[in-house]
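Project standup — Tuesday

K.O.: blocked on the structure for the chain from last sprint. Re-posting the sequence here as requested.
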Amino acid sequence: MLLQKKVITRFAIYAFLFIGLLSSYACQESSWTEDIEISTQPDDKPGDQTVLKRPTPPENPSEVLERRMQWASYIAAKVLCQDAEARTEVMELLMIQESEYLDLNQLLLTSEYTPTFRTLFINQATYHLNNIDGEEQFFPEPSHNQAVPPSSRQVELSNVHQFIDFLTVDNCLELFFINAFIDDRGNHYFSTAHPLTTDEDNYGYEVLYSDGGFGQGNNSGTFRVEETVVTPIMATSDDKIIVCRPRRNTLENPACEYSEISRGIDFTLFLTE
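H.V.: unblocked you, prediction finished:
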């Protein structure tokens, strides 16, 4: 009888511990999901940010456009930070055209001048859409705790082809390269988008890449990304900045009138005054 009581008592203890472990796991799993879904706030300290920004879905076309422009410049910065060949392609095309900006359709729809950049951009965009910006992602990318732009996914953007079409066919967008020819900062860029208002600055991202001593382009290095504010003062320094901005061109595409955005806004003046 005494032995039977001991067995029953031991079973009860094990059962209590098992239920406790299940409860702890459920709480931890909930915490993981909440951490991933909480957005990075502008006043967070560097390193305190969570990985995936999930703010309220945008309510108008301008918000959708700005978010996807943020992603375009962010991905471009990562590509140029990591790969010297892609960086050379872009720099040479800028010199050929004697310009500070390049159309995204020129960079992404053809491979005549920038084949490496195009390939790496599409690869990065595919990776981020599948692993970072998707609706069903519960775990972050292996780079851990890196700031990323707000979700650009929305319901109508299901794959990278639709993302590229949005940037190149549905819109007239360009990348504006500030201080593009500062050679000693090839692995350090700032990215942002035109705010689509008269604001003189906008939130953006500081992107740094360390190749680990194996040379850029080997994919064995690490990124460090922090959210920041990109200002006109930065444009007058040696900071390399990539701005994605619209270009009004109704002859090329009637949708590029951007009638929902004030006609008084000159997109080319952002960070140049």
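K.O.: great, moving the ticket to review. The CA atoms of residues 59 and 268 lie 25 Å apart. Strands lie at 101-103, 173-178, 188-193, 202-210, 222-230, 241-246.
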